C-alpha cells in the first residue's frame, strides 16, 4: 500500500465542545460535522500544557512537557530539537508544507518542513520597535507581508481595535478575502496546485482562529446575533473576587463583568468558528477536485481551548475542561487506510504528543526514541481500546500555576502556589460545576490521583515534592533548562 497523503488541520484556541458534532446547542459547523461523521472522533483528547508554545512543542516533538522543557508561555526561546514531526516525515519521503501558525523561535524556523508560509497572528514580542529586522512580523510573517502588498504599507490587523487576547469582538472591516482565515485556505489550496504529483504530501493547514481577535466577517456575526445563547458554566465553588477586580480590563485573564460583553464574546467566538468551518469546507472541496481525497488521511485538532467566561475565566492555561480539553478526529479516504473504522467515537485518553507517532506510523516511518507519545492508530481500527489510564497536565501561570491528573472519568487539580486542591467527577459533571475535594466518598480516589501526581513531580527541578508530599510555593518558571 502506498503512503497516503496527510492533511493536518490545526486550529488555535478551539474548545472541545464548541462544534456541532460535539453536541453544542448553538455553534454551527456543518463541514467539520461531515468530516467527523466519516471518521473516528476522540472524545477525550487533551492539551497537557494548554497554551500556544508549550502545546505546539508537544505536537511537533512528540514529547511530554518535562522533556521538551516548555511548561508555560515564554517567547523568544530558541527551538532546537533533534526530531520533529515534519522532519521525520520529510525523511520518510513526504513533501512537507505548513501554511499558517507555527509560533516558534526564530519565526522562520521551519522545524523540518520543506516550506512554510507563515502567519502567527499578532505576536507582541515580534512587533516591538527594537526587534531585529528579520524577526519583525512585518518581515518574517508572510500574511502581514502579503497584506501590505495588497492594501498598502499602513494595512494592519490592529485597525479593528481588538487585541490578540481580548474578549472584545467586532466584524472584519475589509473584504472577506483579506481575512487571515481565508488566506490560510487560499495558500493551502495553491499548494495542492503546485505540489509534486510524484510524492506524497504532508500539509499542515494551521489556522489562527478562533483565537482572538474575534473578528469574523459580518455574515458570521449575523448568524448568532439574534440567538439565545447557552450561558457560561459557573459552578458551586466559584469566587467573584478576581472578576470584580479585573472584569473591566479588556485583556484580562477573567471574563468581562458586563453580561452584554459576555454575550458579545460568545457571538464573536462562535462567528470565528463557523467562518473557520466554511473555509475548511473550501479546502476539502479542493482536495476532492484535485482527486486527492481518496488517498488522504485528515487529522483535525486544536492546540488548546478557550474558557469563554466559564468559571468567570477567559483564555487558557487553566486546568479546567474549557482550557485543556480539545477536539480531535481522524478520517481517511477509501484508499488511505485499510480496515478503517469510520463513523465511530473513542473515549481513550490521548494528548497532542500522540499525534507525531500516529502520523509517523501512518506514513510507515520509524518513531524516534525521543518520542513520549503513543500512536493512537490502533484506536482508529478498534475505538474501544484504551491507550493510557491517566494523563498529567500542568501550566506555569503566576498565582494560578497548576498541575492536574485527568482520567476518563475524573480530574484532580493542585495549585502550586497555594496548595489548593480540587476534584471533579467528569463522568457525571463534564463542566466541573461541583468540586468534590472534601466529599468523604471520594477520598481514596483523590489520594490515588494525588500519588500519581507526586510520582510525576518527584524528580522535577522545581522541588514540588518534599518527603513524599506535594510542597506548595516553589518557583515555577515557564521554561525548563532542557528546552
Automatic annotation (TrEMBL):
Belongs to the sulfatase family. GO terms for cellular component: cytoplasm. PANTHER family: IDURONATE 2-SULFATASE. Keywords: Hydrolase, Metal-binding. Its EC number is 3.1.6.1. One of its GO terms (molecular function) is arylsulfatase activity. This is Arylsulfatase. InterPro entries: Alkaline_phosphatase_core_sf, Sulfatase_CS, Sulfatase_N. CDD domains: sulfatase_like (cd16022). Residues 4-365 form the Sulfatase N-terminal domain.
